[in-house]
Design brief:
about 325 residues, six-stranded mixed sheet
Length: about 325
């Protein structure tokens, strides 16, 4: 049995923790909650999945579906979906959503695996001691004697944290991300009669939109999440939030001829919203590791941008860790 530290409680970190439960696992995350970009935001009586929106049945990973079924974490629904709104392309789409928002999926996995954890703990340094074991340091605390360190946070942050322990000059090419501004908005009356519940390419500057009432039955107002396009976000990375929100609102209301009074609007910037170029595409490898096979980097940037890709990356690495720890 090995002492294993997992840095990052997103889907890859949770996949590793789930698959390595025979070892002593400790999870660290700078956030107060597990899930990473699988985030559900609550404001008073409003709910928004403003990170990952759903799990596609077309990109399923067998084990992730098994876990969702085992713990009763999700439900499959079918919705009217615009595959390309600008070109008037529409279909019926089957998706999996969380029982209580998308974040309920990683939160419930985290609760069920019952491993030691330190949330609200940003790890800022890793060092190796004379016994060939590792210590992790937050700003307040030292955590000692780990056999393996598995880092599952965005690539650039992983690289910065492990640069003294991994020779990155041997890495051919680096994965990249797209940033995305997300806008959450709600209208006082739930009678907009918009038949399309989600879709792509609403506008040249809005790449995705989704109704939240189909996920949260308790919502009395009409709630939506809009993803600005990655191109727009990159060109307006530091835009004033009020300006961004007014722009997104004006587009949405014009397209759907909305006359209702808005009751809530807020935006969030995801710098590492989704993988643009995966590490596997560049290198054909499924993780980055130190020469001594003690430090490993993984995450959604390894295989692709979906929740399934993030889980699959952790599952693949866990198989290798099991071989090493025999």
């Amino acid at each position: 049995m090995k002492n294993i530290a997992i840095i990052g409680a997103g889907m890859t970190g949770l996949s590793l923790a789930y698959n390595l439960q025979e070892h002593n696992i400790t999870i660290f995350d700078k956030s107060w909650r597990p899930g990473g970009r699988v985030s559900t935001r609550k404001h008073d009586n409003y709910f928004f999945d403003h990170g990952a929106h759903y799990l596609s049945t077309n990109h399923s990973v067998f084990q992730l579906n098994e876990v969702i079924s085992k713990y009763n974490l999700g439900q499959e629904i079918e919705i009217d979906f615009a595959t390309d709104y600008l070109k008037n392309k529409k279909t019926r789409k089957k998706i999996i959503i969380g029982q209580n928002g998308m974040n309920s999926i990683p939160k419930s996995i985290f609760d069920n695996i019952k491993v030691k954890s330190y949330l609200n703990s940003k790890i800022i340094k890793i060092s190796k001691n004379s016994n060939d074991l590792f210590s992790l340091f937050s700003e307040q605390e030292e955590f000692k004697d780990f056999d393996y360190i598995l880092i599952c946070i965005p690539y650039l942050q992983s690289k910065e944290l492990s640069k003294e322990l991994i020779d990155f000059t041997q890495i051919v090419g680096e994965p990249s991300y797209d940033p995305i501004h997300t806008v959450m908005l709600s209208y006082k009356d739930n009678n907009n009669k918009i038949k399309i519940k989600a879709g792509l390419n609403l506008h040249k500057d809005i790449s995705f939109f989704m109704n939240q009432n189909i996920k949260f039955n308790e919502l009395s107002n009409d709630c939506w999440v809009l993803n600005m396009s990655s191109e727009y976000t990159k060109n307006n990375i530091d835009i004033d939030k009020t300006e961004l929100e007014k722009y997104a609102q004006s587009i949405f209301e014009e397209i759907f001829d909305i006359k209702n009074e808005i009751s809530f609007i807020k935006s969030h910037r995801w710098l590492y919203a989704q993988t643009k170029l995966s590490y596997n595409t560049i290198s054909k490898k499924n993780w980055i590791n130190s020469k001594d096979n003690k430090i490993f980097l993984s995450g959604d940037w390894v295989l692709g941008k979906s929740l399934s890709d993030a889980w699959d990356a952790g599952e693949k690495l866990s198989h290798y860790i099991k071989i090493l720890s025999v």
